[in-house]
Amino acid sequence: MNNPNHFPITRRFASNHPQMIPMMRALNVVGMLKEGMAEIPVFKRFPKVESTLRQGVVTTNTIVLMVDLSPFSTFVANSTPMQIQVVLNAYYERAVSLIENRGGVVEKFIGDAVVAIFGAPFNGELDSTTDELLAAFEAGRELIDEMHTLFGAELTAKCAIDVGSCFLGYVGPESHPELTVIGNPLTTLFRLEDRAIRESVIMRTALYERIEPKLPIAKNTLESILAGWNVSHDVVELRGVGPAVGVTSAVRRR
Q1: For residues 168 and 60, is the Cβ–Cβ distance under 8 A?
Q2: N or C: which end of the chain has fewer CB within 10 A?
Q3: Is residue 105 within 8 Å of residue 116, measured between CB atoms?
Q4: Where is 36: in which H helix or E strand?
Q5: Is the bond preceding 121 in cis, omega lying within 30 degrees of 0?
Q6: Strand 229-236 and strand 245-252: pairing?
Q7: pTM exceeds 0.70
Q8: Cα–Cα dist 164/182, whole Å
């Protein structure tokens, strides 16, 4: 525990940023953990969604993004509680900021994982657009870059994205209602995240092909280079999801 030879850059960041300890209150993290989405700020941004939800659930074709840190378990095993808190709060702060700047909504925090929604129903429609899918992809890349800037190769981010039919609504007992998203894309999302390597964004190839025409892909090269990112394709089986599926990964070039 607390081995000085582990995570020197990350631990130095924690020591130099004690102001991140009270950040939890400013971000309303407690509310997110207890009740799913932070309802008041979400409804303030999207008032039409609030009135619809008061009448029941909303089923839409939704974009879901998941980000987590790697190797987080090793970092926790070699850090003090204060160091963990400071690093998580810095990560949460940047994740919320980048996701919201791209038009997304943070759905919940699960340990070191952040789950967010882009497009429907917050766009006021039943479907999500290619531009909103692109926004989720760019938010993931930006967060990976941010974590690299902060912690180098010691503690990195990786992301997964999927799209599909989800419902947004309240679940749970009356004493503990949670505003959350449920649907098959969440299962795919977690399986994709398991497949993701460090500093990569992974998604089904069919989804990547929708945004590829809008990306600055380098020409005249044997490999696909996306502004400092290597893009590769594979076919994998995702446990509990169905037949093998094509996946595409954009990996930050080191």
Answers
A1: yes
A2: N
A3: yes
A4: none
A5: yes
A6: antiparallel
A7: yes
A8: 11
Confidence of residue 45 (pLDDT cuts 50, 70, 90): confident
| Domain positions in the chain | 8-252
Residues 6+ apart with CB under 8 A from 147: 69, 91, 94, 155, 156, 157
Name residue, tokens 């909504």: 105
What is the C-alpha separation between 15 and 91, in angstroms, rounded? Answer: 15
Is pLDDT larger for residue 175 or for residue 68? 68
Q: Are strands 224-225 and 229-236 parallel, antiparallel or unpaired?
A: antiparallel
**What is residue 16's predicted lDDT score, i.e. its pLDDT?**
77
List pLDDT tens digits, range 131-164. 999 999 999 999 999 999 999 889 999 999 999 9
Tell which residue, 206, 231, 203, has the closest CA to residue 217.
231
What tokens does 121 get?
A: 């129903």
Helix extents (H) in 113-250: 130-151, 184-195, 205-211
pLDDT reading at 223 higher than 70: no
Is the preceding peptide bond at 41 cis, omega within 30 degrees of 0? no
Q: How many CB atoms lie within 10 A of CB 125?
A: 13
- Cα gap 102→135, rounded to integer Å: 6
CATH superfamily placement of domain 8-252: Nucleotide cyclase, GGDEF domain (3.30.70.1230)
Share of the chain above pLDDT 70, in %: 84
Cα end-to-end span (Å), the chain: 29
Q: Tell me the longest C-alpha to C-alpha distance in the chain.
A: 60
What are the start-end ranges of the H helices in 28-80?
Answer: 29-35, 39-45, 47-53, 72-77
pLDDT digits (tens, 9 = 90+) for 73-125: 999 998 888 889 989 999 999 999 999 999 999 988 998 999 999 999 989 88
